[in-house]
């Protein structure tokens, strides 16, 4: 299944990808092999992002309209952001704001939520 998003984990030899299989994947870029799967989403993953302020965390978002934040070294699910607006639809884009430890979520409805 196609990969829809990729981001590098700064200061490491790892990357994160997401795709239509509904999984976030942590990859060892030195070997090209998957190091871990992040399985909590209930649909395709359209966007992934490595946190800039705290490089231990990654966030994935997609078809189910939720953003999942993980401690990427263990796969521990730290947080699930579930916007209350049911009309928002899938998350198509994620961006981190380094100074504030916040994420912007871009939804199908054309709005960005912080």
UniProtKB/TrEMBL annotation:
InterPro entries per the UniProt record, alphabetical: WD40/YVTN_repeat-like_dom_sf, WD40_repeat_dom_sf
Lineage: Eukaryota, Sar, Alveolata, Dinophyceae, Gonyaulacales
Protein known as: WD40 repeat domain-containing protein
């Amino acid at each position: 299944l196609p990969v829809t998003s990729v981001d590098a984990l700064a200061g490491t030899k790892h990357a994160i990808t997401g795709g239509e299989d509904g999984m976030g994947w942590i990859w060892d870029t030195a070997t090209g092999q998957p190091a871990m799967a992040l399985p909590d989403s209930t649909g395709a993953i359209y966007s992934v992002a490595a946190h800039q302020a705290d490089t231990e965390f990654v966030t994935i978002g997609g078809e189910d309209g939720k953003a999942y934040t993980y401690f990427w070294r263990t796969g521990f699910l730290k947080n699930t952001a579930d916007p209350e607006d049911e009309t928002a639809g899938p998350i198509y884009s994620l961006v981190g704001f380094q100074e504030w430890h916040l994420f912007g979520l871009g939804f199908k409805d054309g709005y960005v939520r912080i």
